[in-house]
Amino acid sequence: MSKLSLDGFYSYCKQIAEHIQLGERMASLSGQGTPRLTSSVGNLYYDSILPYREDSQAQTREFLSRVVDVLLDFVHQVNDRNEKILEFRMPEEMNKLCDFQLHDEPLPLKQLLEDCKLALKHQVKTGHPHFFNQLSCGLDIISLAGEWLTAAANTNMFTYEIAPVFILMENVVLEKMRNMIGWRTGDSILAPGGSISNLYAFLAARHHKFPQYKEKGLSSIGGHLVMFTSDQCHYSVKSCASVCGLGTDYCICVPSDERGRMIPAELERLVKYHRDRGNVPFFVNATSGTTVLGAFDPLEEIADICQKYDMWMHVDAAWGGGLLFSKKYRHPRLTGVERADSVTWNPHKLMGTLLQCSTVHFKYEGILLNCNAMSAEYLFMTDKIYDPKYDTGDKVIQCGRHNDIFKLWLQWRGKGTSGFERHMDRLMELAEYQVRRIKEQPDKFHLILEPEMVNVSFWYLPKQLRGVPHDAQKEIKLGKVCAKLKGKMMQSGTLMVGYQPDDRRPNFYRSIISSAAVTEKDVDFMLAEMDRLGQDIIVD
Ligand SMILES: *Cc1c(COP(=O)(O)O)cnc(C)c1O
């Protein structure tokens, strides 16, 4: 028997170790089971990979590759109709199931990979074809690719200096969106959500009408500012009144008609009333696509009133803005939008761009800088080698700003403008299909109103309530059914449809078709599954 030298023994061990690693890597690459790290990488800690160790390219790559495998598995599950949308757990139980604790000592990479898996395992799959619960849903693959890249680029959007490519992209996309609204010039910004976009519109309106406000404050206005919005508007409009010192009593709710659209005659009456009392009506919010009913306020008539009383007109199209792509559905819903002074439009809703992506647009060039600039000298020097107009940081009330543009730009490149148009038309067709199917089953479903958008409002009738005449008593019972049936959906994990009351009726279902994953068979599934889970519900 030959003796091994120490060197020989060492190289022999190394070969075996490499063999084991190769085997592990093969197993994890062959798609069997869940992604796993080889033991030599799994047992490493954060300070053994980049950027702490220059010679750790391979280990870093392996770690990130397995994380990507976790992501790809999730994408697969999201699109698998046999998978549940969620495994619902009560918060106490979830707390036990997941170890959320932060420790003094570091954890190895293999634990972090497990943490990644666990987080996605218990996450609601908002891109699942049976998820009808929220205005923002769906998992657009191209947009997802953009978001992954955005995270890797990890830059701040405040100066051209550090985000040259993304700043120019913003300019192109936002100009395109303004053109779709119907403006040739103007100003725009991406904001962290539609609510903040609405706040930007409010601030710009106040600055436009009362430029002295910026330095001198509220008392320089000489009258109490009043804003108007419909009683169906998004609550963020009202919050502007509170945030900006008007007080919510001075955000006047204009009554809407039975389909949820602002009544222009009521708007005019209320404007006159407040003007005659010495207040200063200055801002009207019209909603294009209300959050619950999907209603469109009549923009032309509202624009006439704004013109007559010299008020700023804002259109909150956070939800309905996407329909600007559609020749078929844009009119009459958004007719007159070009007469607005500002428009909020969330690509992360109807257009399916990944969260978060929200835009606000202004008719007036330079208004954001005029309104919001604080001229911080350490960021926005005016003697830079490029034109400082490319720095966006001083246009906003934030300092740093997240890159929300790349995922939208890439998605738009991928789809083309025509692809977005087809997407809008498809969503609307599916909602029309759902309405037809609901009407075909009047014993089981009650359509509340003809929708203008992809929000469909309806009640489900369990056996107990079928054939009973429809009256206020019955509506109360149908409202109780909503909460019970929603509970059953969550428990079974097979379907998610949202419900809420409004000021005309108790709880009712509002389904949303806003995901490219949804087809006719998913709409049929929604209705059939509600019936399967709900038919035996009894309420008193
Ligand atoms: C969703 C919505 C908002 C708020 O948008 P966030 O991005 O959630 O802040 C504002 N207005 C309307 C009409 C909406 O539907």
Characteristics of this structure?
alpha/beta; Aspartate Aminotransferase, domain 1; Aspartate Aminotransferase, domain 2; 12 strands; binds pyridoxal-5'-phosphate
Topology, element by element:
Elements: H1 6-29, H2 39-42, H3 57-78, H4 91-97, H5 109-121, E1 131-132, H6 141-153, H7 164-181, E2 187-191, H8 194-209, H9 213-216, E3 225-230, H10 235-243, E4 251-254, H11 264-276, E5 280-287, H12 299-308, E6 312-316, E7 342-345, E8 358-362, H13 367-372, H14 406-439, E9 445-447, E10 455-460, H15 472-492, E11 496-500, E12 508-512, H16 520-534
Parallel strand pairs: 1-11, 3-4, 3-5, 5-6, 6-7
Antiparallel strand pairs: 2-8, 7-8, 9-10, 10-12, 11-12
Helix pairs in contact: 3-5, 6-14, 8-10, 14-16
Bound molecules: pyridoxal-5'-phosphate.
Task: Characterize the structure shown.
The protein has 540 residues and is an alpha/beta fold. It folds into 3 domains: 13-124, Aspartate Aminotransferase, domain 1; 156-210 and 221-402, Aspartate Aminotransferase, domain 2, CATH 3.40.640; 414-534, Aspartate Aminotransferase, domain 1, CATH 3.90.1150.170. The protein contains 16 helices and 12 strands. It has a 7-stranded mixed sheet, sandwiched between helices. The protein has a 5-stranded mixed sheet with strand order 1-11-12-10-9, covered by helices on one side. The chain is globular, with a radius of gyration of 27 Å. It starts with 5 loop residues before the first helix and ends in a 6-residue tail after the last helix. It binds pyridoxal-5'-phosphate (PLP). The site of pyridoxal-5'-phosphate has 13 residues, from helix 8. This is Glutamate decarboxylase. The modification N6-(pyridoxal phosphate)lysine is found at residue 349.
